[in-house]
Amino acid sequence: MTGGPDLRVRLGALELAHPVINASGTYDVLAVAGEHGLGAVPFSCYVPKTVTPEPRPGNPPPRITETPSGIINAIGLENPGIEAFIADLPRLAGLPVPVVISVGGARPADYLTVVGRMEERLADAGAGPLPPIPGYELNVSCPNVAAGGLSIGADPEALYELVSAARPLTARLLIAKLTPNVTDIVAPARAAAEAGADAVSLVNTFKALVLDPASLRPFLGNRTGGLCGPAIRPIALRMVAEVAMSVDLPLIGMGGVTSGLEALEMIACGATAVAVGAATLADPRAPQRILEELRAELAARRLAGLDDVRGKALRDS
Amino acid sequence: MSATRDRPDGCGPVGADVVSRPVVESRTFGEWTLVSIDAPTVASVARPGQFVMLAVPGAVFALRRPLSIHRVRGDRIALLIERRGAGTRRLADMAAGAQVELSGPLGNGFDIGSSGSALLVAGGVGVAPLQFLADELRARRIPSWTFVGLRGETHLPLLAALDLPAQTVATEDGALGIHGTVVDALEASPASAAAVEKGAVVYGCGPLPMLFALRDWASVHGLTGYGSLEAHMACGTGACHGCVVATTRGYLRVCADGPVLPLEIIGEAIVTAGGAR
Fold it and tell me: A78–B251: do the CB atoms touch at under 8 Å?
């Protein structure tokens, strides 16, 4: 074999060139394509910001701030709605990687509306070029919206219902993005698997609170927000491991990964792919660096590919 | 010079790449430090009102800090850093010779094309981008008046970092100049009356309450202008929608839609179908 370790991974029917993808809402390929065009995307798969049926203005500011080894945010699923999203999709047509649509809503029917509308557009070959769209990530875990979001993801029965209803609408990959704001992360993962999900991604952010030190009032316009970044990584790692031991589905692990070694740890805990979010916000070069470090980690350990390490932390020896 | 540095295809800002550049000079004025960085590429294309994102040196994990370009001299850019928290303290502590990782110039600058005369209004460290603007206006021989509002006695050292035309100072504690806010000073000063007379374009930068007051003052006096906003930012390039500000056009991103916005659109809250929020 030439060119070092084999980094290809498979999420159901979707083969990716390497395991590093972006966490939804932390990277906008069009916003950063300025200097180098679409070809320079550092991820093997692009997950745009969550889209809902209707436009959402998002939460009042302030929406984001730094915390010790982390970031708290409450964007509130700001997005232009599915119709404007679809109208804008041809701009991604030159993207060299597949696009997984992140789907959100205030109620289960919203998710079905978005998936149904995307399927219509994808079936309409005459409507112009699109990037390859191999699937959907159901964002049932946003902590910053009043309705929907994590209220679905934290309730295994509601999640089962939603995934079951979405399943017949598409033959494409269906990923359930789980919330860590639960006592038992395995229950919703199992519900998603039983309802026909092809993969689960975890974790979304941890519901959290920061105060304005001067006023001693909540700093964020939404009062609470979602915590991400290195501060949550050991908890995310534990949750990925728990799901990997209990559910036979490919996992997208995420939560505070900032280095190739940390990506490898996610994989050792059972993840197939690793999503990067906070690290990209802190340093736009992070995704590329993480990938290079991951390659170097495998080479240094004389491993031919990721299959040799996946789940290593879960075994007895 | 083009009005916007976005690519014609609408794909994002130029300047998002990270480069490592040396600090060449650092001078402290009370709570503020003027840091000069050798950054020829940024210096050659930057326009007043644009900003750079600076990585916090030595931090284990930190968001980059957005800082307005305060001045451009040859190959150097100068940044006026206020010590607010751990990140800005580390940045202000950078000595000559230190390497700093930065991206820029980012955002949209001030529109100076149509200015017959200009009224510059700063609140505290909001004066940072207005120095660069004043330098540009001076080079174009556009008559300008400057108002600088400071909290009080402890903020006076900031003035030594500045070189502004026709400067009026206001302090909230009355330590220097007009006793009151910078907008109180606009009401009281003959210099602002002259600016109103000439139909000057207003350029403001400072905290939101100051910009609201300036917006209302400009409106009453029939002046139009621009406000440069500050916000907690994460990506700096428009991706994360973390730094938005309420406007009459909905939430706009300070980093990518701003930081300079028409003064009259800056709002206390957006209005949606459900009412103000």
Answer: yes
Task: Indicate the DSSP class of residue B7.
Answer: -
**Smallest CA–CA separation between A112 and chain B, in Å?**
24
Chain A residue nearest residue B56, CA to CA: A282
List, by residue number, the catalytic residues of A.
142
DSSP string, chain A: --SSSB--EEETTEEESSSEEEPTTS--TTTS-TTT-GGG--SSSB--S-B-SS-B--PPSP-EEEETTEEEE-----B--HHHHHHHGGGGTT-SS-BEEEE--SSHHHHHHHHHHHHHHHH-GGG-------EEEEE---TTSSSSTHHHHT-HHHHHHHHHHHGGG-SSEEEEEPPS-SS-THHHHHHHHHTT-SEEEE--PEEEE-EETTTTEESBTTBEEEEESGGGHHHHHHHHHHHHHH--S-EEEESS--SHHHHHHHHHTT-SEEEE-HHHHH-TTHHHHHHHHHHHHHHHTT-SBGGGTTTGGGS--
Q: Among candidates A224, A279, A248, which has minimal Cα distance to A70?
A: A279
* Partner-chain contact A78 B245, CB within 8 Å: no
- The CA distance from B178 to B189, in Å, is 9
- Sort strands A9-11 and A206-209 into parallel, antiparallel or unpaired: unpaired
Q: Which domains does chain B have, with CATH numbers?
A: 5-106 (2.40.30.10), 118-265 (3.40.50.80)
**Cβ <8 Å between B61 and A60:** no
**Interchain contact B7–A (C-beta under 8 A):** yes
pLDDT tens digits, one per residue of A65-120:
999 999 999 999 999 999 999 999 999 998 999 999 999 999 999 999 999 999 99
Nearest to B100 by CA among B43, B28, B23: B23
- The verdict on a CB contact (< 8 Å) between B63 and A66 is yes
CB count, 10 Å around CB of A111?
A: 26
Q: Is the overall model pTM greater than 0.90, yes or no?
A: yes
Candidates A32, A77, A91, A220, partner chain B, best to mutate (most B CBs within 10 A): A32
- B129: preceding bond cis by omega (within 30 degrees): no
ipTM of the complex: 0.92
What tokens appear for B204 in the block? 């403001």
Which residues in chain A are closer than 8 Å to B242, comparing Cβ atoms? 63-64, 73, 75
Percentage of residues of chain A with pLDDT beyond 90: 87
Question: Among candidates A70, A88, A71, A66, which has minimal Cα distance to A79?
Answer: A88
